[in-house]
Amino acid sequence: MPTNFTVVPVKNGTGKTREEKEEEDVDGSNVLREEEDPTGDGVPKENSPFINNTENDKNNYDGTNMALFEEEMDRHPMVSSLLDKLANYTNLSQGAQEHEEADEEESTKKKTVKSPQMGTFMGVYLPCLQNILGVILFLRLTWIVGTAGILESLAIVGLCCSCTMLTAISMSAVATNGVVPAGGSYYMISRSLGPEFGGAVGLCFYLGTTFAGAMYILGTIEILLTYIVPQAAIFTAERKEDQHNALLNNMRIYGTCCLSLMAIVVFVGVRYVNKLALVFLACVILSIISIYAGVIKSSFDPPDFPVCMLGNRTLQNLHFDKCLKTEIINNNTVSTQLWRLFCDGPALNSTCNEYFVNNNLTVIQGIPGLSSGVISENMWSAYGPLGMLVENKRLPSVGDIDPAKDIYLPYVVNDISTFFTLLVGIYFPSVTGIMAGSNRSGDLRDAQKSIPIGTILAIATTSFIYVSGVIFFGACIEGVLLRDKFGDSVKGNLVIGILSWPNPWVIVIGSFFSCCGAGLQSLTGAPRLLQAIARDGIVPFLQVFGHGKANGEPTWALLLTTGICEIGILIASLDAVAPILSMFFLMCYMFVNLACAVQTLLRTPNWRPRFKYYHWTLSFLGMSLCLSIMFISSWYYAIIAMGIAGCIYKYIEYRGAEKEWGDGIHGLSLNAARYALIRLEEAPPHTKNWRPQLLVLLNLDSDQSVKHPRLLSLTTQLKAGKGLTIVGNVLQGTYLSHEAEAKRAEQNIKSAMATERTKGFCHVVVSSNLRDGISHLIQSAGLGGMKHNTVLVGWPGTWRQSEDPQSWRNFIEIVRETTAAHQAMLVAKNVDSFPTNQDRLGEGTIDVWWVVHDGGMLMLLPFLLRQHKVWEKCKMRIFTVAQMDDNSIQMKKDLQMFLYHLRLDAEVEVVEMHDSDISAFTYEKTLVMEQRSQMLKQMHLSRTEREREAQLIHDKNTAAHAVMNNKEEAGPDRVHMTWTKDKVSTERNRTREPNANMAVRDLFNMKPEWESLNQSNVRRMHTAVKLNEIVVNKSQGAHLVLLNMPGPPRNRGGDENYMEFLEVLLEGLNRVLMVRGGGREVITIYS
């Protein structure tokens, strides 16, 4: 059918309407029209043996049994004809062509805020530098270089730095597309990808920042207990194998105390934390300068830090001073402290460890210097399991007979199993912190310029520091010392410290304060991030954390942050905590890249970043790198982190407050919808994909409330949330005068839809009259390929008592229009008695009365209903009607086979309906119907008179029906008549017999009226009466009865008679769903 697109005046940015700006387009040239389809529906006919293919079987339906459906026969075959053609059933053509890509569209506008004060260097560069450089550089980088080798270490650094550089490019584009207030990455992601993604990733970023605080505190305590005051340890190990557990317990105790102290500092004086940030940054810079100075000095004057080797094994020299087995004192050879560690006594004849006896002690320089050529030995990796000895393969070694005892001896060993992916996870936190500049955008003089330059420059600087550090460490330090994580072979000194100049304490003290400052800043930033998320209101259970002290400090958020941070402290191992926070940061960076890529590809009007050096391919590469590093580092942590984010996403989607932030996901949804609609428009759906797309026509009362909410319940049960549902209503009048009523009606309908769990759209139309409004809905509801194909209405049960005949005439016009539009129609009788969504029907049946085949709707609807838990216990029964010439037994077999191929479970019964004479009761019903119709046409009766006459006719009908039923029960000789003159004369003679029934005699006295009856009406009434008798007899106890709905007469003069036929057809049945097909196949036997 044709579709009109009309220009509507819309205000533009200047306040003028588009019509004022483009007056030349208003003369009608901007109304686009599609060429009308000759068939009127724009849908090509399907090549089916069932529908619209009756040229070869123009049967003569002059019999009386099916007269009610005789006008359907030229389009819809009888079931018997259908079953005859079952063997010739062929599949429909697929007809699905793929076309068109959808790009573009939609976004909203963001506010701009002025930004004063800081420049690029102080506002972005230095904060990023301070956040990126930290604990991993000082405590783990040398160990990573020694374990992975220079080449693989460079690969790790390059991989992680590339990831952050690509993320910084994407972040610069997002951050310069408007102002980023407090919340930093959370704000960017939530406003770019929507509240669900923003909340999920924001909470992940919060958890990452919180665990980063735990990592910095653990680094602080490790420096304190290992390098500054080892004697402060509460737990000490008597045996070497217990040293690791003792260290972890000390970390837990001191870490908890340090966390509590830092939390108090943040709670009481957060302004002092910000003032001390410069001091902490100075410590970091001085430490790095000290390292480079030490590297330069080592090239001509390497420091003297000897490492004692037994054979090729590295020894812990914590408990001995001289790397000797024996020494000469006063011309006497005596054992050394080292001897006592490997032998059972100080005597020279004591029993000693065999490896100690067979191998010589060697002293090598821990830091041979930049020009020593040690770089070639440190090129390759030296991974190993937990407890593996740290060895120098260049030195000679005589094998150990009992290596199991080695763990009790003072060798340097691996404290964890090492492999490439583990080191990636441990190293990645050292490149985080790139968001520090964007978080301060409100304090920058020119955020649009400072954020990209400062962030990218900081990443480039730190990347250079890490790359040069890897090379210099590998070129200056002996490999066994690099792999000595805690410096046990150099008397417990920090390995990177002994390289530095002028003194190792510069690095120790600098790294200590650096870790303290980073921990304080994490405990300062994480609660504020949580507060920003809570104040957005997208996660309801977090709203309590949006409150704080009078000055806005997030007290409750700080408390939660401290509790989560304590979990990281209890883990106690820096190497175990680092991969956890890596996951959360990587997920955050991944979605920053996704936000940039989505906005770029959608080309939303508001996407106008001042930073121009970005591309969606770089964003996708960065996103892929983030995802890859997550699974490289730890696949199980990655799955857990994604699971947490997924749960938060679904929770926000299900329970969170609805927010419209003009996010990219909304634009992506619009583009996807547009693309799908264009694809759907290309061809009608295949039979296998057909499902009822419903237009539900509701009636509202005077208060604009829904009259029959059970119609929505039936819709929900029929759809089970799938497919399209449009709930429509028509208000009479003009839109200008009824705008408020229309909006109130729409809200009431949406509320009823939510109550009945009906997923779909609401469409309220205001029209000058109901007839036109309903017609407009049937023609124009939906969009493109997402249009309804089925109309669901309730049966107008009070049409006889209606003061205005237009109500039932509107119903008939709906039937005619759906037929003309090739749409199916469902009419529910007694819809208020249908079950609600909370009801659970017990054992029972859904009875299908299949009289004519009009596409298979009668077969499909019970199957769809039984998918819902309301109807799932019901069984399906199919009844079909056999004529005089039909083979009932063969029909039953064919129908069972047909159902078998359709994969439907149903009982089958063929009801024989032989040609018979028309009963007197049928004539009586027809006469009353025509008399009432004539009277109402000729007389202008008042409302009370019409109601009184309608009640009188109803009482008379009921009494006559009861008389005929009593006659049936009394004996088999029910009167059947085909009214010819001879039969009338014979019947009159019979009625004169003494035992003749008085009611029959009275009826015969009306013979002149019967002779003048319209024979077409008589035959139709005969069909309605006989079918009603059979259906009531078989299906009165069914939970639901579905039957074919006959079409209205072509001559509108018989509309009221049509309503009478349907009323007689439905008499005595409670829940009925009349079905009228849309003229196409909706069910197929093929896969």
UniProtKB/TrEMBL annotation:
The UniProt entry, under InterPro entries, shows:
AA-permease/SLC12A_dom, KCL_cotranspt, SLC12_C, SLC12A_fam
For this protein, the record's Gene3D superfamilies field holds: Amino acid/polyamine transporter I
Q: Which Pfam families match?
A: AA_permease, SLC12
This protein's GO CC annotations: plasma membrane; synapse
Give the source lineage, highest ranks first.
Eukaryota, Metazoa, Chordata, Craniata, Vertebrata
State where the protein is found.
Cell membrane
An annotated Gene Ontology molecular function: potassium:chloride symporter activity
| Keywords, in A-Z order | Cell membrane, Chloride, Glycoprotein, Ion transport, Membrane, Phosphoprotein, Potassium, Potassium transport, Symport, Transmembrane, Transmembrane helix, Transport
Superkingdom of the source?
Answer: Eukaryota
What kind of membrane protein is this, topologically?
Multi-pass membrane protein
Transmembrane helix among the record's keywords? yes
The Amino acid permease/ SLC12A domain sits at 124-296, 413-695
Question: GO annotations under biological process?
Answer: cell volume homeostasis; chemical synaptic transmission; chloride ion homeostasis; potassium ion homeostasis; potassium ion import across plasma membrane
Q: What are the residue boundaries of the SLC12A transporter C-terminal domain, all occurrences included?
A: 709-827, 830-1087
**Which portions of the sequence form the region Disordered?**
1-62, 94-114
Q: Which residues cross the membrane?
A: 119-141, 153-176, 197-218, 251-270, 277-296, 416-436, 456-482, 502-520, 556-574, 580-602, 614-638
The reaction(s) catalysed by this protein are: K(+)(in) + chloride(in) = K(+)(out) + chloride(out)
Q: What is this protein called?
A: Solute carrier family 12 member 7
Q: Which family does it belong to?
A: Belongs to the SLC12A transporter family. K/Cl co-transporter subfamily.
